[in-house]
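[recover] target loaded
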């Protein structure tokens, strides 16, 4: 069977899907209604399926429908053709459960199981759009409407299309967090980012170009040779009132990094200010900063 991360469709662009409510804009993930037919088939017990709160876990809320689990063959029914975004983060399964309160307001909980903790961190960073939530390893919330956090190799998404008490939203999230396996650390590449003035949004960790196409356009042809074996991070900086985006990619070897640099420099990429390869690392700066400032940022990241 084809590797999930390799199941990428060429030319895909804004696959910004499934981890945030539609009212939010920017690089966040939307939440389409599931299109698959509900099933009453019993779902086997696992750390993923056992993480959902029971019927009376939060006062005033009851279960609404069956627990559903989607894998790499059936996820298309949940995200309506946008599965490639999740395959890029080592998607394995997603479990979905719905709750309803006395007023008929619905709360959906999706828990995504990825291949490794670094994938969960990466998928989480692609969904940050609100304020810190302090749940799980790191959380992000729009109080009373949406809460997303990552923990070990899981990303938990909770969202309601209507306002609910934020205390209820957090109670559900805390119950999920307590039930999921603990652990998970940021990928080491993220720690190489220079300290500096960055907007509140977290850097995006990724493996493949698809994950950052909404932030920096590299042509859509994978000129950098990105794959499941590459790690990347994209961070925004504000330097002297101007904006810069720092791209770092860790390749399996120095030869691949050098080839990536040559392709980037010869690709006529809009907004590229400076780029350099050092050992197995490739760094590039895009934006409005001058070349000297961009080179200094690269030096700090690659040293």
């Amino acid at each position: 069977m084809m590797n999930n991360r390799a199941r990428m469709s060429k030319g895909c662009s804004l696959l910004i899907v499934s981890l945030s409510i539609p009212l939010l804009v920017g690089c966040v993930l939307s939440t389409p209604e599931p299109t698959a037919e509900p099933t009453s088939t019993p779902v086997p017990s696992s750390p993923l399926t056992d993480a959902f709160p029971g019927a009376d876990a939060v006062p005033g809320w009851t279960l609404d429908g069956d627990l559903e689990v989607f894998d790499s063959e059936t996820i298309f029914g949940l995200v309506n053709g946008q599965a490639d975004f999740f395959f890029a983060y080592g998607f394995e399964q997603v479990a979905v459960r719905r709750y309803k309160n006395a007023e008929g307001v619905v709360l959906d909980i999706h828990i995504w199981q990825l291949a490794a903790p670094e994938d969960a961190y990466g998928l989480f960073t692609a969904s940050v759009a609100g304020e810190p939530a302090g749940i799980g390893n790191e959380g992000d919330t729009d109080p009373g409407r949406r809460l997303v956090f990552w923990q070990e190799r899981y990303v938990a998404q909770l969202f309601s299309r209507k306002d609910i008490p934020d205390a209820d939203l957090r109670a559900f999230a805390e119950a999920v967090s307590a039930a999921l396996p603990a652990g998970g650390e940021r990928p080491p590449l993220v720690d190489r980012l220079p300290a500096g003035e960055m907007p509140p949004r977290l850097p995006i960790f990724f493996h493949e170009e698809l994950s950052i196409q909404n932030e920096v356009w590299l042509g859509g042809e994978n000129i950098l040779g990105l794959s499941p074996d590459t790690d990347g991070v994209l961070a925004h900086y504000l330097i002297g009132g101007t904006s810069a985006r720092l791209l770092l990619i860790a390749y399996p070897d120095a030869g691949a990094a050098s080839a990536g640099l040559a392709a980037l420099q010869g690709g006529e990429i809009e907004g590229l200010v400076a780029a350099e390869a050092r050992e197995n690392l490739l760094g590039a700066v895009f934006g409005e900063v001058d070349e000297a400032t961009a080179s200094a940022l690269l030096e700090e990241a690659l040293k």
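[recover] notes: The chain is about 20% helix and 25% strand.
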